[in-house]
Structures are given as structure tokens and as C-alpha cells.
Amino acid sequence: MTSAAGLFKRCGCHDPMTGRRLGSQCPQLGVRGHGSWYFRLELPPGKNGRRRQLRRGGFASRKAAGAARDFLSNPTTLDGTSGSAVTVAQWLRLWLESRENLAPSTMRSYAMHARRHLIPNLGRERVTELTPARVQAMFTSLIRTHAATGRPLSVATLQRIQATLRVALNAAVRRGLLASNPARFVELPSGAKPHPVVWTPTRIALWQASGIRPAVAVWTAAQTAEFLAWLHRSEHPLYVLFHLVALLGLRRGEAAGLQWADVDLRARTVTVARQVRQIGKHLELAAPKSASSNRVIALDHTTAALLQGLRIEWLATHPGTSEPVGFLFPDRSGAPLRPDFLTVIFRHLNSASGLPPVRLHDLRHGAASLSLAAGNDLRTVQALLGHSSITLTADTYATVLPDLAHHAAEATAHLLQDATGTQSGRRRPGRRSRTGRSTRIRHHR
Q1: CB under 8 Å to 99, separation ≥6 — which residues?
Q2: What is the C-alpha to C-alpha distance for residues 354 and 413, in angstroms, rounded to an integer?
Q3: Do residues 148 and 182 touch, judged by C-beta distance below 8 A?
Q4: CATH class held by domain 82-192
Q5: 0.85 exceeded by the pTM?
Q6: pLDDT tens for the 445 residues of the chain, in order
Q7: Extents of the domains making up the chain
Q8: Per the count of CB atoms within 10 A, which of 9, 143, 415, 419 is most buried?
Q9: Is the alpha carbon torsion for 114, 115, 117, 122 positive or negative?
């Protein structure tokens, strides 16, 4: 589907016979929502006199593609408006329409921030007249307005709104509408991430008496073992899934996305190659959160035996097959489980078990702590969790369990005692005893 104005529509469908991409020849392009709009712009000839063209695509509508084409051909105008008069609302809409290669969740987040916060508060402002003070005033107003309604915006939400505005205005800087980005200088309340703490007897007593609980808490090794044992006795169908999350530190989307092709029982490994991503009611299979999240995890003998049992169950219900296929934990239709369903079912199981409350994601924190308590170093835990940097592992997940903390304290004390040659409780070297004899320092060779 083409246009004489240099606008055309195309899609990524392929010819089933040749495998070639149909592009602008796809017969489904007339269907609403199928494909996206592109524009073609003639540029001045190069130094060698050759013809040059600029082509951009990914626009949701013909109008958006035309507006982008017109703006690039004459950066001082947008939708027929002088560049100096382009409003933030106009710019945000064009910017959103022209986003390419973004994850659907990211695009959804950008659009929500623009619709709910940025356009209502900054939409009438001219882009060329935006200042750090004006942007700061908008965030101050957001904070006060939402606090007054009893629904304050979290620091994380404010930071994400700022990030959306910063990315959008960076594009405006590249187009010459701004000399610098005023969103860079916004000051927001500090929002240090709460570090995980362990459910000690004191914290449990406080929670039982007052309902007060830590923002992020993890179970001890004994509590985790108690939960898994209770789940096993209950013969819950998702026992193996929660076992994998608790020991391997899988994210809920990674656990839901595991397929039998990812399991190698001979080598005792599981490959994390995808995640189930949920956007509203829609599910999609996507790459893991980062390149480091695509990882191969070694399995202990117990976990491998659980997966072997799951494999035997699958083969018993699918006679005539030699190897299981599909998802490890499918729903009744064979599709992957919804991540939000896993969160809800875990919350119910946590409550029924009688153990102090944790979030499903806190099992991931607990897996890191258990690995550290077992004597593994941070590099090993980083690889287990699929973090891109060891700093993130140390800052966020290196929760020290009480037994490990006491062991470290005793080890430090023994190191000092060995260096001084004394034992705990003995008199200091050189001091006189009641008999008048001097306590000698014992030298170690």
C-alpha cells in the first residue's frame, strides 16, 4: 500500500512459498492495525551527485508518518506549526508514534506517563521555552497533588516519569528544538531501595503483635525448607516450580517460560532462554530481562530428580511419545501460566503455610542469601541470578542470614585471637596475676 506523497504501509509477513518478506505487497495491509506506516524523503544529492533518500517507519498512522516526514524535511515546522510554537503535547505524540524496536511494555509505560502526567501538566508549554525550573515545578506539583489525595506517587514512579520525559526531550535536542535537556536537572526525593532483611524471631513477634512487616523480607534456610516441605506434603501441582524459584532464583516470568527443551537432565542443567511477559491481559514470550539473564544454571541432584519425576509424569499422560515438549508448567490449554497468577497463588500458599509473609520475588532474594550462606562467592550468585554487574548483586541481594553473620563474627574474633596469641577470657599479656607472676605471651610458630 503506497502513496504518491512518499507515504506507504508495509508489514513483516512472509510469503509461505518463497519465505520472502511481503512488505508493501501483503494483502492484509488493508486490515486495520496490520502493518505500520513509513515515509520516504528525498534528500539533496551527495557530493558524487548520487540520489539520496531517507526512509523511516514504524508509525501507527498515516498522519503520524506524514508529520514526521514534514518535520524532518523542515525542522522548523511540525503539523504546519512553526518550530518555535511546537507544544510539548504535539512533540510527545509525534515522538511516541515514531518509536521503533521498543518492548511493548516500555512503549506502554511511555504512553501512560505521557497521557497521565506529562501532557496534562506540560502539554501547553512550548518545547523551545521549557526550562529546568518549569519541569521541576511540574514534578513538585505532581508530588503535592497526589499526596493530598492520599495516593502519593512512589519515588520509583517519579523516576520513571522523569526518564520518559528525558528520553523524549533528548529527541527534541537532536532535532534542534532545544539546546539542552531541561529534564536532566530535576531533583526528586531520594528513594534508596529497601534491602532485604531476614525473618528473625524478633521481627516475627512484632509482625504477629502489630501487623508491621519489613518492606522486603526473606525466609531463613529453615523457613524456606519448611515451606517447601509443607508444599510437598500438600502435593501441590506447582511444588516443583516454587522449588526452582526458591533454589535457582528464577524470576516469575522466567519460571513460567521454561520449556522442556531448556532442560538437560543428563548434564543436570536448565537454560533460561525466555520469559513470559504480561501486558494487561495479553501474554507474550520475550527474551530474558537482559543479556546476562540468558544463562545456564547447574542443578543439584535433588532438583534434577524432581524434574525427572515431572518428566515421567508427562510421558505417562502422553503415551506414544519419547520426550516431553512444551512448557514445564502449562495451563490446561498448554499455554504458559500467567505471571500474575503465580503471584496470587503464592500469596495464598504463603498464608496457608503459617509462615511470615514474603513476596514471590522475595524467594529470589532468598535464593541469593542461601547460596551465600552455603559458601558461594558473589560471582557465583551473580551468574545464578543473571545480573549484569556484581555491584547489583552485592547491593541488592547479598542478604546475610543470621547463621552466616555469626559464623563471620566468630571467624573474625578467632583471627584476632590467633594474632595476639590469647584465648577468649584470658588475662591480657604482661599484666600481673594475684600470685605476682607475669602472664607470658605464647608465640606460635
Answers
A1: 58, 107, 110
A2: 37
A3: no
A4: mainly alpha
A5: no
A6: 444 468 888 887 887 777 788 878 888 888 877 887 887 877 667 667 777 776 777 677 787 777 767 766 665 555 555 455 788 998 898 888 777 667 777 888 999 999 999 999 999 999 988 999 999 999 999 999 998 888 888 888 999 999 999 999 998 888 778 888 999 989 988 766 777 788 999 999 999 999 888 888 889 889 999 999 999 999 999 999 999 999 999 999 999 999 999 999 999 999 999 999 887 777 888 888 888 899 999 999 999 999 999 999 999 999 988 899 999 999 999 999 999 999 999 999 999 999 999 999 989 888 887 887 788 877 888 888 888 777 767 666 555 555 566 666 777 777 777 777 654 455 444 444 444 444 343 444 3
A7: 1-73, 82-192, 197-400, 410-445
A8: 9
A9: positive
Cell numbers placing 373: 550462606
**Cell numbers describing residue 73:** 524535511
